[in-house]
Amino acid sequence: MSGRKRQNRIEHWQVIAALLAVYDAVAVNLSYFLALWFRFDCMFSEIPREQYLEPFLKFAPIYAVVCVLVFLVLRLYNSIWRFASFHELMRVVTASVFCSILQIVGITVLFGRMPLSYYIIGMFIQFLLVLGVRFSYRFVLLERGKRDKSRAYQRVMLIGAGEAGQNILRDASGLRRQNLKFCCIIDDNPNKWGRYVEGLPVVGGREDILHSVQKYRIDKIFVAIPSASPEDMRDILNICKETGCELKNLPGIYQLVSGKVTMGDMKDVAVEDLLGREPIQVNMTQIYHDIRDKVILITGGGGSIGSELCRQVAAHNPRKLIIFDVYENNAYDIQQELKEEYPMLDLQVLIGSVRDSRRITQVFSEYKPDMVYHAAAHKHVPLMEVSPCEAIKNNVIGTYKTAFAAMVYGCQRFVLISTDKAVNPTNIMGASKRLCEMVIQSFDRAVKEKTADKLPMLYTHRGEEMTGINPENFCTEFVAVRFGNVLGSNGSVIPLFKKQIAKGGPVTVTHPDIIRYFMTIPEAVSLVMQAGTYANGGEIFVLDMGAPVKIDELARNLIKLSGHKPDVDIEVVYTGLRPGEKLYEEKLMAEEGMKKTENELIHIGNPIPFDTEEFLVQLKKLMDAAYDNDEAICRMVAQMVPTYRPDLGGNSEKNGVYRALTGTR
After folding, report:
1. What is d(CA 407, CA 377) in angstroms, rounded to the nearest whole number?
2. How confident is the model over 408-428, as a mean pLDDT?
3. Does this model's pTM top 0.90?
4. Both 173 and 140 in a single domain?
5. Cα 346 to Cα 342: distance, rounded to the nearest angstrom
6. Residue 508 falls inside a structural domain
7. In which domain, by residue range, is 26 found?
């Protein structure tokens, strides 16, 4: 019943259409009457009644009905005129021309010839009246919208008068609904100054940015110079971030190749754009040779580092890529991405934990990977401080079980993803990663010395012991790659800062002097892969992360890039160092020294000698303590990692406990 009522109800647009038909019936005849009136000098009494006026009056009702029918056929009563465009204009032109022909033929044949001006002027007036009433609706709405939203428009400065900038302007011309108004253009080419692009003035170079922002009351700055050098981009962005305007950037030059530069390609300016250095280059030929036609296993393949490893491995034609992760949502996301990007890739996504020795053994026995990138780990420092046993179970014991399976099932190379927090660690996460490095070095020594049969089987389930292990057959190369923070990774401060800025602050920084080394995820992963090509076994590769960055400065730059002023629009609050957090991170222990590789950004640390047999005995006890959730786990780690200094960042109570445990001052 409700559906039938809806069908019988007269809609608003139908009422408008009926009124429009009445208007058209009057307008088409009024047009030709005015033409006749103009012909006789706007004097009604001068119009010959029998020769012209009576034929017009007799033909008028016929012509009105015919015109309405023609307009109906051409759907001039069905369009939504507030969105009228060129298509509707052409239909009005077609209808007017057709009706004018009917007027000329009809009245001439039925009643006699009219003055020539009658036909010409009448046709012109008819077109204006029919078109005007329809498009006036749109123009009235637009003008009213402009008045209502005049203060809502954001004034935009475009940097870059090249091809990319022109494409942005053309695309933006149809995006008024975004309330953007382009006001001026900046370009470093003096030949373009004082000239116009798409009707906008090119007002000067980068030195004119600050002045032009004030002059044109700019709210947003769009940077469309994808071919600029990193140094030029850094300088321009550093100027822009001082304006307080919101910044958008056109990243990369790939859009120019395809000619598809649109407003949708504009992205928020990222902090890495301010680094001002060339992207790190690696020897892809070596990596291609190592990975091509190999079975590659990536643990933790759904994480930020692991997923980028998957992308770069997939691009180098492996025989098979196996993604192993405990978190199915991340694993599913990278699976779908790789399926779309590399439809011919032999991809296997497996769910499981590196802590589960049965699952790990099953995976290695079935797929027998040639190379393993071990990225699975708990990495969040504050969370691990309150759950130290979980850091040991997942990071240390998980690495041991994975490395053991890799050795037994003939893996050629095992690459551990480590961290600079393993150097003189002050937190359990860093200490656990140092233990992972020691595990890798222990396995490498056992393989080289043919003593792998003496390695303990750290299994938590009975009946899993392997028999018949022949150390003569083992040849796996075990290496670790150590690097610092990566921009945009899970757990990075940058996503946290962005969320805090989006909420209006405050932005929380632990200490005004805290510094960190940063690298982009693709750069870090490509260096990890190349470091793997240099492996002979037992090395700890250290990536050169460049100059350190102050986190306080990083936070303030992010606030500026968002169009706000630090401590004015968004407050920066210092919360104090968290448990286990350092003011600075170290990339290499002093005892390890440095060796060079072919890539100047990749170095090798000399292994620190330690008693492997004693370490393995302690490791077995450490595993038992971790699975018993022993509160003394940190004491055991401190005995195994001499450089472990718990919470030197400022927790005096915990430092006292450490000194009491170890006898240090």
Report:
1. 20
2. 90
3. no
4. no
5. 9
6. yes
7. 10-148
Domain co-membership, 445 together with 584: yes
Give CA–CA dist 489/522, Å, rounded.
11
Please choose, from the candidates 520, 507, 487, 499, the residue with its C-alpha nearest in 3D space to the C-alpha of residue 556.
507
Q: Taking the CA atoms of 612, 614, 617 and 620 in sequence, report the sign of the dihedral they define.
A: negative
8 A C-beta contact, residue 553 and residue 494: no
Q: Which residues contact 144 (CB under 8 A, 6 or more apart)?
A: none
659 compared with 18, residue with greater pLDDT: 18
The answer to which of 97-111, 294-308, 556-570 has the lowest mean pLDDT is 556-570
Residue 106 CB burial class (10 angstroms; 0-12, 13-18, ≥19): middle
Same domain, 224 and 160: yes
Output the six-digit token pair for 637: 């780690």
Give yes or no for residue 574 having a pLDDT over 60.
yes
Most confident listed range (189-193, 268-272, 550-554, 574-578)? 189-193
Phi/psi at 388 (5° precision): -65, -35
Task: Identify whether 636 is part of a domain.
Answer: yes
Q: Phi then psi for 19, rounded to 5 degrees?
A: -65, -35
Q: What confidence score (pLDDT) does residue 510 get?
A: 86
pLDDT at residue 464 in the model: 54
Domain boundary among 274, 305, 324: 274
What is 450-514 written as a DSSP string? T-GGGS----SSTT-------GGG---EEEEEEE-EEET-TT-HHHHHHHHHHTT-PEEES-TT-
Q: Name the DSSP class of 562.
A: B
For residues 568-607, one letter each, b for 16 or more C-beta atoms within 10 angstroms of the residue's C-beta and e for the rest, the string is eebebeeeebbbbbbbebbbbbeebeeeebebebbbbbeb
Q: CB burial class (10 A; 0-12, 13-18, 19+) of residue 410?
A: middle
Helix axes 633-640, 652-662, angle to 10 degrees: 60
Residues 133 and 187 in one domain: no
331 and 443 belong to one structural domain: yes
Q: What angle, rounded to 10 degrees, do the helices at 86-111 and 54-73 form?
A: 150
Whether residue 207 is found in the same domain as residue 349: no
Please check whether residues 169 and 50 belong to one and the same domain: no
Over residues 565-570, the mean pLDDT reads 84
Q: What is the pLDDT of residues 334-351, one digit of tens each?
A: 999 999 999 999 999 999
Instruction: Please report whether residue 1 resides in a domain.
Output: no
C-alpha distances out from residue 544 to 523, 529, 600, Å = 11, 14, 8
Instruction: Return the structure tokens found at 152.
Output: 């809502």
For residue 525, tell me if it sits in a domain: yes
* Residue 38 β-bridge partners: none
- Domain harbouring 240, CATH code: 3.40.50.720
Residue 228 CA, distance from chain mean position: 20
**Tokens for 265?**
């390609």
CB 531 within 8 A of CB 373: no
Q: What was the pLDDT predicted at 389?
A: 95
Please say whether the beta carbons of 345 and 295 come within 8 A.
no
| pLDDT score of 398 more than 90 | yes
Neighbours of 381 (CB within 10 A): 22
If one counts the domains in the chain, the total is 3
Task: Answer for the pair 357, 400: CB distance below 8 angstroms, yes or no.
Answer: no
Domain final residue pick, 222, 241, 274: 274
Residues 87-108 have pLDDT tens digits of 777 888 888 888 989 888 888 8
Question: How sure is the predictor about 589, in pLDDT bands with cuts at 50, 70 and 90?
Answer: low
Look at the alpha carbons of 85, 91, 93, 96 in this order and tell me if their dihedral is positive or negative. Answer: negative
Same domain? For 134 and 70 the reply is yes
